[in-house]
Amino acid sequence: MKNVESFTLPSRILHWVMAVMILAMLLIGVFMASTVGSGYYRLVALHRSVGIAILVLAMLRLGNRLHTPPPPLPEDFPPVMKIGAHASHILLYVLMIVLPLVGWGMLSAGGYPIPLWGQSVLLPPILPHNPMLWAELRSVHTLLAFLLFGLVLAHIAAALFHGLIRRDGVLRSMVFRKSLDPISQESHGD
Amino acid sequence: MTTNTHTLSGSILRWLGVIALPFFLMLLFLWAGGWLTPYRLTQVAMLDALQKGSGMHPGFRRNHAKGVCITGWFEGNGNASSLSMATVLQKGRVPVVGRFALAGGLPYQADAPEKVRSMALRLMPSDRQEWRMGINDIPVFPVGTPQEFHDLQLASRPDLTTGKPDPARMQVFRTSHPWLQTARAQIGRRPVSSGFADDTYRSLDSFLFVAEDGTKTAVRWAMVPVQPVMPEIGHANDHDYLFHKVIEDIHTHPLQWRLMVTLAGSGDAIDNPSKGWPQDDRQINAGTLTLTGIGSEENGPCTGITFDPLVLPEGIMPSGDPILQARSAAYMRSFYLRSGERPTAPAVSPEMTVPSANARDKKS
């Protein structure tokens, strides 16, 4: 079995915290955009606040990633898959940042106030009030959310493919273990 | 590649392991979006029900489609400031953009006395803690839940041949909803005023006022006209007589309403807008609305605004009233759809809202 260097602890914490947040946001988003039920108002309020939290965390994470590059993929990993892996990760980062910005922008263009965590903090608008733009961005927000959900599913399937089929240590590099496998430490010099 | 050799069944299990989680999440996503439950009441179903009654009118609000923009200010007197910390309710003046409209999705419908009139307002304090409302001139809401609203829209939709609601279909709705009989009777026997200017508009839904110390008070409110209430008079054959009249009225002199806040008494229905509150509940005069301007929706200041009743300032919260949630959701979708459509000229044109020579004379 090949061993891959682990992601640093901050990287892993950021990954898993955001994984939960992003999955929750996608499910809340698609639910609140269809419901007329009693959870609507609270879910929209939660969606706004968690969306901004994701935006902040995604920027932190981008900084972290540029500062601490992730461990390399196994050397025997097929080049086509490597390209796919890199491209999908770039797209994931783009969407983690762009999707909240589009949400913020669409509410700005729609002339909505944008309160966070309760009612006392209001975000400023980032776009001028323009109903046509609101409608367009509202559609773009949905499309990008579908794209992100598809990517998340592909990402999960790929991680499980690494863990269950290839068993190449790539999945293990992102999970938490009690102690680092000594062999994987040796593999630094590969 | 150094994976272990394994049996075929082991391999299948592993591949199942790879796709099981994404597949489960996909199902969860489809369920959350309502795609697996076609009978769940959704925003789309709600707007479809409205559209069945009035047809498709691109660019217009899906309900209260025929309207006119209004402008002015609201002056709080501070009487309600101990109940709510909302800045709009403190002493002081805030600008207002609003809208008068007729209920229903028909943007070119003829004005008629018995049609429900509405006032929509956006109160804009300088700290951006704005308060939006859509209030109506009926004593109670005809239904108590989103599902009832949806079913009433379908039951009351005009018959294709007669152009009027099918009495048999309405009868079925009434007999299956006996608990809405009181609300229907109250709406049916409400006094009808001469126009928009001397009408009383009510929140119908209940809200919670939140004081500085966190105390919550369930309230409803009404805009009660300062100008004398005149009885309904003839309107010749004027298709837009209500709008012509209010345009003339505002150009003649500013129109004013008192914001009367009613505090829920013990036993009052908070979560059901089809149930009225008794007359002897405590009332507070919280301020005065003054309207000085009126203009067509064509490029008007109210056109790009949705008067979502859950756009609330700090100090006002939604109650458990389920209609409020459905209104907020449906207004959002209506605003999204109409904003993406090519706007059509509204019934109340810019020419109609120009002051007439008559009104100018009276003013000077």
TrEMBL record, chain A:
Transmembrane regions: 12-33, 39-60, 90-114, 143-165
Species in which this protein is naturally found: Gluconobacter sphaericus NBRC 12467
Family membership: Belongs to the cytochrome b561 family.
PANTHER family assigned: BLL0291 PROTEIN, CYTOCHROME B561
Pfam families per record: Ni_hydr_CYTB (PF01292)
Subcellular location: Cell membrane
Name this polypeptide is given: Cytochrome b
GO molecular function per UniProt: electron transfer activity; heme binding; metal ion binding
Cofactor (UniProt): heme b
SUPFAM superfamilies in the cross-refs: Transmembrane di-heme cytochromes (SSF81342)
Annotated keywords: Cell membrane, Electron transport, Heme, Iron, Membrane, Metal-binding, Transmembrane, Transmembrane helix, Transport
GO terms under biological process: respiratory electron transport chain
Cellular component aspect of the GO annotation: plasma membrane
UniProtKB/TrEMBL annotation, chain B:
Any Gene Ontology CC annotation: cytoplasm
Active-site residues (renumbered): H64
Record has Oxidoreductase as a keyword: yes
SMART domains cross-referenced by the UniProt entry: Catalase
Stored SUPFAM superfamilies: Heme-dependent catalase-like
EC id: 1.11.1.-
Domain Catalase core: start-end pairs: 16-364
Transmembrane segments: 12-36
PROSITE patterns: CATALASE_3
Single GO biological process annotation from the record: response to hydrogen peroxide
Cofactor field: heme
Signal sequence extent: none
Binding positions for heme per the UniProt entry: Y331
Disordered: region residues: 342-364
One protein family per Pfam: Catalase
Annotated GO MF terms: catalase activity; heme binding; metal ion binding
Enzyme category, top tier: oxidoreductase
Record keywords: Heme, Iron, Membrane, Metal-binding, Oxidoreductase, Peroxidase, Transmembrane, Transmembrane helix
Family statement: Belongs to the catalase family.
Summary of the function given for this chain in its UniProt record: Has an organic peroxide-dependent peroxidase activity.
The protein's name in its UniProt record: Catalase-related peroxidase
Organism field: Gluconobacter sphaericus NBRC 12467
